[in-house]
Design a protein that fits this description.
The chain has one domain: Gyrase A, domain 2, CATH 3.30.1360. The protein has 4 helices and 10 strands. It is globular.
Length: 179
Amino acid sequence: MADGYTHARSPLAGRARELASVGAAEVAFLAQVDLRADPALAPRLSFALPLEPNAWTAGGGREALWLGPDEWLVVGGPGSASAITAELGRALAGEHHSVVDVSANRTVVELTGDARFDLLTQGCGLDLHPRAWRPGSCAQTLLARVPVLLQERDQATRVFVRASFAAHLAGWFHAAGTS
C-alpha cells in the first residue's frame, strides 16, 4: 500500500530548505488512526495504550498518543493505516468503539537539536522544561496560534499539524528560528 503514495504531494512539499534552517524536517504520510474506546479494553490490543494523560507509548510498530480519557492517536509507518484500522476493529469487535483513519488530516514536522525548545517556547504556552516535558510526553496545544499535537521523543520533538495550517507553521518556524 505504501506504493499508493508515489504520486501524493505532502502539505510541506517544497518547504524542506525552510524547515532545515531551524533543524526541522517533515515526516510525511505517517498513518494516523483515531481510536475511541473504553480504556478497560486496552489489554485486548497488541500494543500498549497510554492510560496516563499527556503520555505516549510505542510497541508493535505503533505509537499511541493519549488525546483524552477514551481517545488515542495511533501512529504507524506510511501506508499502514488500513492494517491498523483492521487490527483495531478485530481486537475490539463486539465492543462500543470508533476507529477512523485520519492520516490525511495532519502532517508531522520533526524538530531536532537543543535549540528546538527555545524555538517552540516562542509560540507555545506549555512548560517545555525537562522537569515537566520529557521523552514520553505529548500534549495538544497552540503553537503560533495553530492547534498542534506535540510529541517528545528521544532527541526530537514531533509537531502534528493540520495540513491546512502546515505552510503557515513552516513559515513561522523559519521566521522565529532565523530572527
